[in-house]
Design brief:
The complex is a heterodimer of chains A (659) and B (82).
Chain A: E1 2-8, H1 14-22, E2 26-30, E3 37-45, E4 48-54, H2 66-78, E5 82-88, H3 92-102, E6 109-114, H4 116-121, H5 128-135, E7 139-141, H6 150-160, H7 174-185, H8 193-201, H9 217-231, H10 237-255, H11 267-275, H12 281-297, H13 299-325, H14 330-348, H15 351-367, H16 369-382, H17 391-399, H18 401-407, H19 414-423, H20 433-443, H21 448-471, E8 483-486, H22 494-528, H23 543-551, H24 563-571, H25 577-587, H26 590-596, H27 599-611, H28 616-626, H29 629-656
Chain B: E1 14-20, H1 24-32, E2 40-46, E3 53-57, E4 60-64, H2 66-69, E5 72-74
Antiparallel strand pairs in B: 1-2, 1-5, 2-3, 3-4
The chains are: A alpha/beta (659), B alpha+beta (82).
Chain lengths: 659, 82
């Protein structure tokens, strides 16, 4: 089967073209070992089925970011039969920069110039034949959105299969040209040799392209040193970029007419006069976020969540009746009804909210607003080693930690993504609210509002301080600059948003069906068995409570060293709502809680609840998104130790002050 | 006199890039995004909180932090290209 690779700049309409070519014949996964999304599909090329791989959206083939490495490694190692390079016609100069690099790989390249309709509405004309003649590769004007030109595109791809690799177009300055040719001659004869030579001369880290440049290191070092002395430049990177862009300027001037309107502001500029204006930008942004948050976690989202829970409750009842009719032992009925179906229901209850959230996020991303939001918030987040792109995941964390952690993928670099994943759990999720309300209602009924505000504030403060601490230690990012494109506003596609929401839900469903399900079952079994492995008649006899009793002394210095509290905290690992419910069951009512705690130990307990490890679903998601068990374990320990330390300070400090 | 940089432009002003300074990775990134010597840049606006900056280069809108923009050295007003 022939292989084609689809590649292009971000915001060039790559995913739309991929969906148009493959239709439903596609599946999503991850590139081996990294959390960069990998999409593969099947399409018809030259009358036969061919594979199409969707490579990450990138600006350049220099392996600085994870996405660039993934793309370059695939192209170099797998050598697809043809590269389909998609370009944004309204942003041709910068898009062609990647094209020129792709053409050096020694693989046939076909350029699909997208957004032909948008170009037309700007009153500009691109002459296909001229650009084709300049580049020396097939060029097809398309509109991925309407499908215009796509058929012609696959025909040209079919012909390109036998056409051979494109030749070099760009002439560099004499010093660079000579150094490049000399470097190339130290390498074995292979397709893409000049590409490799350029990378080596530029001193780029490409050792992951295994075996590509064995031998000749000494000669190459001499060539580089001679080049540095001759030009006064540390490497040839800037000379290459400069020559490429100069070549592009000339080619574009020949192939593309200037905008008819001259300097008139574009529609996007007009929208931005309001949307990113000094006065209105922040209020508009906050209103939009509040609206999204209210829809997802407010009445609409929570009633969907309630429906999901009710559905599984009914399912459990129905299964219990069915099984009881079949003379199944009572403990097995219980396990299936409460443990399995109840557990799955508890986790799947999040599904409607996750789906809604990612539907909205996809609309925001697709319309071009997300980049503006990052632009607005960047200044606030920079201090903590993050960028404006971390705002949305953090905000989502207040609703539910799991989607917040999932949304961190949009947060720029790998270091920023991981740091965001570390910090999101400190932002009190909605499920922690019941325990705040219960305890504050008992001990500080008149100051419940202040207690609540204080707990949310504490979480934020801990997140901020952790950000400051971790950005300089574990999650240090290299200063590659924060360069973010503001794409033109475009109408988002509802279908595409639904597809993207479904993709995210599928990932979560898979997790729910495996890790989360297993953990919940284990905890349920512990709750219902005695140490003699007999069914527990009362909760106090269960293994779970014994573990609680064993852990209780640990909480003595925090002021709540009784087994009920320890067991409730353990129950909180399944779902944070479980803490309040378990407390009420184990103590047997609010009066007993009031007798067991002092106001100070209640406060210490609340502080611990606000900061300690999130639920199993969140922990499993953290592991997946970190792409590292060690880092996930670190995150878990970090949260638990922070919670312990803060609660210790509150309780012991309070006692010293005489409370 | 200290060289003029992209970080010092006022909204609406434009200029031609003279050279890139700053750390290597940043210089490479800037060049990849089309900020090469001789290219024309225009400061469109600053974010409401004063930073980052929005610029126009090669017909598209790019945002970058003031600190990174300081690495982009410009020709004095009316400077000829390349």
């Amino acid at each position: 089967m022939k292989k084609a690779a689809l590649i292009g700049n971000p915001n060039s309409g790559k995913t739309t073209l991929f969906n148009r070519l493959t239709g439903s014949r596609q599946h999503t996964g991850n590139w081996a070992g990294v959390t960069v999304e990998k999409k593969e599909g099947v399409f018809t090329l030259a009358g036969e089925e061919a594979a199409l791989v969707d490579l990450p959206g990138i600006y350049s083939l220099s392996p600085d970011t994870l996405e660039e490495r993934v793309a370059l490694e695939y192209l170099w190692q797998e050598r697809p039969d043809v590269i389909l390079d998609i370009l944004d016609a309204t942003n041709l100069e910068r898009n062609l920069y990647l094209t020129l690099q792709l053409m050096e790989l020694g693989i046939p390249v076909v350029a699909a110039v997208n957004m032909a309709d948008e170009l037309k509405s700007q009153g500009r004309i691109l002459t296909e034949a001229v650009l084709e003649q300049q580049l020396g590769i097939p060029v097809v004007l398309i509109s991925a959105k309407t499908g215009e030109g796509v058929e012609r595109l696959t025909e040209r791809m079919a012909r390109a299969l036998s056409a051979g690799a494109p030749g070099d177009r760009v002439r560099y300055d004499p010093a660079t040209q000579t150094a490049l040719e000399r470097t190339a001659s130290t390498l074995p004869e292979q397709p893409g040799r000049r590409f490799l030579a350029a990378k080596l001369l530029a001193g780029e880290e490409i050792s992951f392209l295994t075996g590509a440049a064995a031998g000749g290191e000494v000669t190459r070092r001499q060539i580089r040193q001679a080049y540095q002395t001759q030009t006064g430049q540390p490497d040839c990177y800037l000379a290459l970029a400069d020559a490429r862009y100069r070549w592009i300027e000339k080619a574009v001037r020949k192939a593309l007419s200037r905008p008819a309107a001259g300097d008139a502001p574009s529609p996007s500029d007009r929208i931005d006069r309001v949307v990113t204006s000094r006065v209105l930008a922040i209020p508009l942004f906050l209103a939009l976020m509040a609206g999204m948050f209210a829809l997802t976690f407010g009445p609409v989202g929570s009633s969907l969540k309630g429906m999901m829970e009710a559905l599984f409750f009914r399912l459990g009842e129905w299964a219990a009746r069915l099984l009881a009719g079949l003379n199944t032992p009572a403990w097995a009925v219980d396990l299936i009804e409460e443990g399995i179906l109840g557990g799955i229901g508890g986790v799947l209850a999040f599904l409607p909210q996750i789906g809604m959230l990612f539907f909205f996020l996809s609309l925001l991303e697709d319309s071009g607003y997300m980049a503006r939001a990052a632009f607005l918030m960047d200044r606030l987040f920079r201090r903590f080693g993050l960028s404006g792109k971390s705002f949305i995941p953090m905000l989502m964390g207040f609703g539910c930690t799991t989607p917040g952690v999932m949304a961190a993928r949009t947060a720029g670099s790998r270091a920023e993504q991981r740091l965001t994943v570390m910090l999101v759990p400190f932002l009190s999720c909605g499920a922690r609210l019941p325990i705040y309300l219960l305890m504050a209602g008992i001990f500080l009924p008149r100051h419940a509002g202040a207690v609540l505000l204080g707990l949310y504030g504490l979480g934020m403060a801990v997140a901020v301080l952790s950000g400051l601490f971790l950005k300089n230690t574990l999650f240090r990012s290299t200063r590659a600059g924060y360069l973010l494109e503001l794409p033109p506003y475009r109408w988002p596609s509802v279908g595409f948003a639904l597809l993207s929401a479904w993709d995210r839900c599928k990932g979560f469903l898979y997790k729910a069906a495996t890790v989360i399900f297993a953990m919940n079952t284990v905890i349920w079994v512990l709750q219902h068995l005695t140490p003699a492995l007999a069914p527990a008649a009362a909760e106090e006899e269960s293994l779970f409570c014994l573990i609680g009793s064993a852990l209780a002394p640990l909480f003595e210095p925090l002021g709540f060293g009784f087994w009920q509290a320890a067991a409730a905290l353990l129950a909180g690992l399944i779902a944070k709502e479980g803490v309040a419910a378990t407390m009420l069951v184990l103590f047997g009512g609010q009066a007993a809680i009031a007798a067991a705690f002092t106001p100070l130990s209640a406060l210490s307990f609340l502080v611990f609840c606000a900061l300690y490890t999130p639920c199993v679903a969140a922990v499993a998601t953290i592991r997946k998104e970190m792409g590292s068990t060690a880092l996930a374990a670190f995150s878990l320990c970090y949260q638990t130790l922070t919670a312990y330390g803060m609660a210790f300070l509150v309780y012991q400090g309070g006692r010293l002050l005489g409370f | 006199m200290k060289a003029r940089t992209l970080g010092q432009l006022h909204p609406g002003q434009q200029a031609v890039i003279r050279q890139l300074n700053g750390p290597e990775k940043l210089r490479h990134r800037l060049a990849d995004m089309g900020l090469t010597p001789g290219a024309q840049v225009r400061l469109k606006k600053t974010a409401p909180l004063g930073d980052p900056l929005e610029i126009e280069v090669r017909g598209y809108a790019l945002t970058l932090r003031r600190r990174d923009a300081e690495a982009v050295e410009l020709f004095a007003e009316g400077g000829a290209r390349g």
